[in-house]
Specification:
Bound molecules: ribulose-5-phosphate
Radius of gyration: 17 Å
Number of domains: 2
Binding site for substrate: 25-28, 80-83, 93-96
EC number: 5.3.1.6
Shape: globular
CATH class of the largest domain: Alpha Beta
Order of helices and strands: HEHEHEEEHEEHEEEEHEEEE
Strand content: 25-35%
Number of helices: 6
Active site: 102
Structural class: alpha/beta
CATH architecture of the largest domain: 3-Layer(aba) Sandwich
Distance between the termini: 30 Å
Catalytic activity: aldehydo-D-ribose 5-phosphate = D-ribulose 5-phosphate
Number of strands: 15
Family: Belongs to the ribose 5-phosphate isomerase family.
């Protein structure tokens, strides 16, 4: 069994009846969603809010009942993946392009669980290029302003065209190499006009489930 699958499937153990669950995006939570689909088929009652159109269609296919922020304002639990996790529980997310909805859903959740494998654990964030969601208008100027923070922003492409997020925006993948102060960087990025959201998730995760070749580790905050 691959490590992402181990971690993703382990995460369902934290789902209880009648919970409202945030469903993340990516190849790790794919396994969570599949397991959850089976649990729902076996009678578990939950409702879910997806963090992307991709997750929404998978969850619908598996018969997982959906809700939305027009019906609920708080979720019990969100399960998602991460591209990098540092020793202070800070994350880089957005490799799959869903960072804005992922952050909104995580911020509305009482508990935020990350399922990942040991390749995602790092001492300092930044080797993985930081995804930054920007509005398409004047994105070139936004990219120049971001570059002045000492990185190389690259416009994410899809079939030779700019990649478009579920919110109709672009993504700039920003290579910083080392992000020594994630909070400071996050604040600076959010001050740039045109930046909608960044893939820096600072001190939001409560529990990390780390799958490796043959076992699973749980890392609790504190
Ligand atoms: O942030 C994300 C999507 O926007 C994903 O959680 C992140 O990219 C990790 O993905 P995977 O589970 O496929 O490694």
């Amino acid at each position: 069994m691959i490590s992402k699958q181990l971690a993703g499937e382990k995460a369902v153990e934290f789902i209880k009846a009648d919970m409202t669950i945030g469903l993340g995006t990516g190849s790790t939570v794919y396994w969570t969603i599949h397991r959850l689909g089976k649990m729902v088929k076996n009678g578990l009652q939950i409702r879910a809010i997806p963090t992307s159109k991709q997750t929404e269609s998978l969850a619908k296919e598996l018969g997982i009942p959906m809700t939305s922020f027009s019906e609920v304002s708080q979720l019990d639990l969100t399960i998602d993946g991460a591209d990098e996790i540092d020793t202070h529980f800070n994350l880089i997310k957005g490799g799959g392009g869903a960072l804005l909805r992922e952050k909104l859903v995580a911020a509305a959740s009482k508990r935020f669980i990350i399922a990942a494998d040991d390749s995602n654990l790092v001492h300092t964030l930044g080797k993985f290029p930081l995804p930054v969601e920007v509005v398409p208008f004047a994105w070139e100027v936004t990219a120049q302003r971001i570059a002045s923070l000492n990185c190389k922003p690259v416009l994410r492409m899809n079939n030779k065209k700019p990649y478009i997020t579920d919110n109709g925006n672009f993504i700039l993948d920003c290579s910083f190499e080392k992000i020594e102060n994630p909070l400071d960087l996050s604040e600076k990025l959010k001050l740039i006009p045109g930046v909608v959201e960044t893939g820096l998730f600072i001190d939001m995760a409560d529990l990390i489930i780390v799958g490796s070749k043959n076992d699973i580790r749980l890392i609790n905050k504190n």
